[in-house]
Amino acid sequence: MKFVQILEEPIAPGGLVEWTPFVPGGLGEWSTDSRPTSHNHEQHLRSAFAYRLRTRREGGRESWLGLAIEFDEPLSIPALRSALLTWIDRHEVLRSHVVLKGIRPQDGAPGLVRLTTGPGTVHLRMGKVGWYSDPAPMMDQIAGSFDRATAPLHWPAYMFSTVAREHSFTLLFAGDHSLLDGYSLIVAQNELVTLYRAARDHVTPALPDAGSYVDFSAHERRLADETGPDHPAIEAWTTFLRTGHGQMPRFAAAERSLPPVSHPADATAAPEPEPESGPPQESLTELLLDDEQTNRFTAVCSEAGGSLFAGVLAAMAIVYHDMTGDTEFRTVMPRHTRDSPEWLTSLGWFVGLAPVCLDMSDSPTFGQLIVRATAELKHGRVGSTLPYLRVAELIGGAHPDVVAGEPRFALSFIDTRYAPGAADADAGRARVLRSHSYAPEEVFIWINRTPGGLRVSARYPAADATDPSTGDLVGTFIHRFADLLRSTGDRSTFATDG
């Protein structure tokens, strides 16, 4: 299943319709909900609010995730409406909203109030945009609508669109990151297909129960707020930050000079930014290894005593060390917090952040590094057991010599093979979408093991007009990484020591 920036892969043109959720009477008809919000959601809202105050523009529009699902049949409007409303009723997070209201006495910041509405209260407004014969203006329209609709300070911070043709249609969805994560969408594509087919055929959909992310948020928040600076995550993060002179990791190669390389054919630039936003980030999406190649690389990792995940981390560290000469490979990894079966099919932001640091000072072999990566993944997992906003609060009070800032270099790994409908999705039925970004320093790399192999998606700063090579460095890194994966997997024998 591909994970692409929305303008990377055009959708076949057709009749575009936008589907916007609404509740008659607005938020005034909703009930006040005592369940607290998650730390992730709070941090996201406060960042968006600060952006609004600073720029007088809406913040958070660079943080939506979404789906594009292809159906090889004519669109049934009644079936689609039924499916979408059932899905909204299924996931309470789509019927709950947190507003900034009042002032918190402890720090003078705006307070948080949750409002929730019950199942059956949300309706859909169908807005016909028009018929398109050219995909380019249609994609611009969809991307712009998604940007405007997903601002996190408003409800709904999500919307749907359909592109209908004579014998097929595409269903699109976008939601602010506070409502969902990448794995949510891997599950959601199968749910939406199942719900649509069930509504079309007038049968009961065969889906497991899904827990409420609002319930999870409240539970996680209460546990985290009761935690003190003796939590193991604080030690993990403090040690990690001190190894980086008190700072979060950056993609250091972005500050070095390397020979420029050509971008891959399927890596395209993000859309033009608003004037004051700066240049948009560049984007790259590729199939690194096919399924057979990935299996060979995984076998080498297993022989060395590690997993595919550890092997990916080890290979990245080797390439990074070769490119930069840095004696440590430091990054931040999102790790899921779905620690109970009831959350496996839930829509929500079930993510903690884990620090990762690999010692490269002795130029270890791949086999040696597999062992280190396996241990570091286990150690770093401890850091993700406490929400990062709470980590930052506790570190700020107990360790003034370190700064728990925002991640600027992150690596994500997800194995999607066992998700319902994964094979069909990976064959082209569905793809995960992400918004464009204008972050001047952030480098985010997503590695996904899918039924078809090992896929990569990355976003990174655009080329500097005064130094075009800066925009090529991450592409160089990814291509050398892919070469190392292939050459390692092609080895017939492997020694864990050089």
From TrEMBL:
GO molecular function: catalytic activity
GO annotation terms (biological process): lipid biosynthetic process
Species of provenance: Gordonia amarae NBRC 15530
Ranges of residues in domain Condensation: 68-388
Gene3D superfamilies recorded: Chloramphenicol acetyltransferase-like domain, Nonribosomal peptide synthetase, condensation domain
InterPro entries in the record: CAT-like_dom_sf, Condensation_dom
Region of interest called Disordered, as start-end residue ranges on this chain: 255-283
SUPFAM superfamilies linked to this entry: CoA-dependent acyltransferases
Matching Pfam families: Condensation
Source domain of life: Bacteria
Name the UniProt record assigns to this protein: Condensation domain-containing protein
